[in-house]
Amino acid sequence: MFRLSDHNDLFSRRCVLVNGPVIVGAGPSGLAVGACLKEQGVPFVVLERADCIASLWQKRTYDRLKLHLPKQFCQLPKLPFPEDFPEYPTKKQFIDYLESYAKKFEISPKFNECVQSAKYDETCGLWRVKTVNTSGGTRSEVEYLSRCLVVATGENAESFLPEIDGLSEFKGHVIHASGYKCGEDYTGKKVLVVGCGNSGMEVCLDLCNHNAFPSMVVRSSVHVLPREFLGRSTFELAVTMMKWLPLWMVDKLMLIMSWLVLGNIENYGIKRPSMGPLALKNVEGKTPVLDIGALHKIKSGDINVVSGIKRFSRNGVELNNGETMDVDSVVLATGYRSNVPSWLQETDFFSKNGIPKTPFPNGWKGKLGLYAVGFTRKGLSGASSDAVKIAQDIGKVWKEETQQRKQTKACHRRCISQF
Ligand SMILES: Cc1cc2nc3c(=O)[nH]c(=O)nc-3n(C[C@H](O)[C@H](O)[C@H](O)COP(=O)(O)OP(=O)(O)OC[C@H]3O[C@@H](n4cnc5c(N)ncnc54)[C@H](O)[C@@H]3O)c2cc1C
Ligand SMILES: NC(=O)c1ccc[n+]([C@@H]2O[C@H](COP(=O)([O-])OP(=O)(O)OC[C@H]3O[C@@H](n4cnc5c(N)ncnc54)[C@H](OP(=O)(O)O)[C@@H]3O)[C@@H](O)[C@H]2O)c1
Q1: Residue 157 near ligand 1, beta carbon < 6 Å
Q2: Which of 11, 55, 169, 400 has a Cα at 20 to 30 A from 84?
Q3: Pick from 16, 36, 22: which is nearest to 149 by CA?
Q4: What is the mean pLDDT of residues 312-336?
């Protein structure tokens, strides 16, 4: 039985009893789970806040973006990339692949459905997932009720905008990297790029290619690795070496390879972390930069490396080392955050930062029918691995229950509303 307050709430919005799991998010992770569930014969509903699949890729990435890992590490389960795709597919090719993936597995997400809250109702043994849809100028609310909830909202759900002293006084243009498309509008301008992850490095490179003058803020340290070593993907080499060698040794070899290809990056103002690149990724989730040309521009002085920011002024910035600079525009390449804590009312499985507490490869299954896909800090390959396991687990229970239902004559399930 529902409590009275819940009961009133239940009838104030449209309720949908979902046959099978609810998947929140129609990015690569949500699509991968959907495809694997199709194969298991399990029905599901995908809820997506945007009006398209893979909204991160379609709406919040820059034009020159390519996958930075070789394609075999980025394809989703059950459908390889087309053979004519290059080793590092472009953003457009990746989106085309995802569109054909959704089509092949007949995945039709419910778009413009932003999940506001989800909680497990012990009285009815169901997840209650509330959404708001504000498309077309009207607001509608729906509550989905389901035995299983698959969280697929991604590690990069929200742009992270740090609070920096004086930024609101700065009179130039400020944008997060998720809104940056191309350097065309910045020609001839002095641009401060805050952050030196893969986004910060590539935005700087793009700005150089459009004759802008980027300065990149490196406030702490970062590992920069060449994307390739002797014609082979560095990532692939690391994966191969990990089969035979301990992680610390692979890290050492990665650093030697980097030194051979890139030289000593500390000569250019980029400090390396004391922990090796793979260890750091495992422990702190910090991704190494795979260099695709920015380092060359740093060496040539086209990208100016600067220290952390003390404060912004109307026309520029004061750095931690006391230096001041005039700046026309700022690009905050300061990363992303998971948004799970803002809507999932659950604290056992997910930590405060919106990532499952249990690390890969065991962070895909919680209690009471809760699952998480794509929070492995291992990119698309980690998401694919989660998706396969989740679908197998749900499929097993589904088959057992379907078998039982077939053996029971009467069915007393009440469907509140259906699509
Ligand atoms: C610039 C950039 C480049 C990258 N390049 C690579 C790469 O080359 N290789 C790699 O392996 N990884 C890369 N990544 C990591 C990237 O996160 C993954 O590639 C991939 O997008 C993860 O898929 P996902 O489905 O888990 O998350 P997302 O792609 O973020 O999809 C999550 C979906 O959930 C939706 N959503 C979020 N909150 C809600 C809500 N409350 N209600 C409903 N829907 C919601 C979002 O709109 C989104 O469509 C890159 C990331 C960035 C930012
Ligand atoms: N396919 C591709 O080529 C590609 C391209 C772009 C991104 N990606 C992926 O997308 C994900 C996000 O990458 P990202 O580069 O956007 O984010 P990121 O790796 O999280 O890097 C964020 C950067 O911002 C800095 N930063 C944050 N707050 C700051 C502040 N207040 N002042 C100064 N610096 C600050 C961080 O510095 P600290 O380290 O000191 O915190 C860090 O250098 C990663 O997984 C990445 O691999 C892939």
Answers
A1: yes
A2: 55
A3: 22
A4: 97
Mutation probe of ligand 2 site: the residue of 65, 287, 310 with most atoms within 8 A of C-beta: 287
Position 317: which residue type? V
State the chain's mean pLDDT as an integer. Answer: 93
Burial of 153 (0-12, 13-18, 19+ CB in 10 A): buried
With the most atoms of ligand 1 within 8 angstroms of its CB, the residue from 24, 90, 127, 156 to mutate is: 156
Residues 6+ away with beta carbon under 8 Å from 331:
175, 176, 177, 180, 191, 192, 193, 194, 200, 203
| Residue 304 three-state SS | strand
| Tokens 């806040």 sit on residue | 49
CA 249 to chain CA mean position, Å: 29
The answer, yes or no, to whether any atom of ligand 2 lies below 6 A from the CB of 220, is: yes
What percentage of the chain exceeds 90 in pLDDT?
A: 89
Cβ contact 74:5 at 8 Å = no
In one-letter notation, the amino acid at residue 48 is E
The tokens describing 160, both together, are 């992270």
Domains of the chain plus CATH, in order, are: 6-157+338-407 (3.50.50.60), 160-335 (3.50.50.60)
CA of 56, nearest ligand number: 1
Using one digit for the tens of pLDDT, what is the confidence trace for 143-183? 999 999 999 999 999 999 999 999 999 999 999 999 999 99
Q: Which residues are 318's β-sheet partners?
A: 311, 324
Per-residue model confidence as pLDDT tens digits over 168-221:
999 999 999 999 999 999 999 999 999 999 999 999 999 999 999 999 999 999
Q: 200 in ligand 2 pocket by Cβ < 6 Å?
A: yes
Tell me which residue of 147, 141, 142, 143 sits closest to 127, measured CA to CA.
147
Protein residue with least CA distance to atom 44, ligand 2? 287
Model's pTM, two decimal places?
0.94
Per the rule left: phi > 0, alpha: psi between -120 and 50, beta: everything else, 269 is left
User: What pLDDT is attached to residue 3?
Assistant: 45
Residue 24 CA, ligand 1 centroid: distance in Å: 12
Please indicate whether residue 329, judged by its CB atom, sits closer than 6 Å to ligand 1.
no
Pocket of ligand 2 contains residue 334 by CB under 6 Å = yes
The pLDDT tens digits of the residues spanning 346-368 come to 989 999 999 999 988 999 999 99
